[in-house]
Known about the structure:
The protein has 2 helices and 5 strands; from the N terminus they run E-H-H-E-E-E-E. The protein is of the alpha+beta class and 76 residues long. The chain has a single domain (2-70), classed as RelE-like (YaeB-like fold, 2-Layer Sandwich).
Amino acid sequence: MEINFSKQAIKFLNKQNITTKKRIVKAIELLPNGDVKKLQGKIGYRLRVGDYRKVFDYLGNIAYIEKFDNRGEVYK
């Protein structure tokens, strides 16, 4: 599966410390497995990695990662 990142997702990932980056990247590599749920009332899915959430959508065989943020802030 091919994975594309938005500008915001790359910026957020670059600001994190090394251990957090490794956890997030490992979770992304395991897509579509993991704690993935469909968003209610919106188009897309979310992946939970500890206190962080990743909002993404599938476009065929491509996962487009729209947004990374802390829990609660990502859905605004």
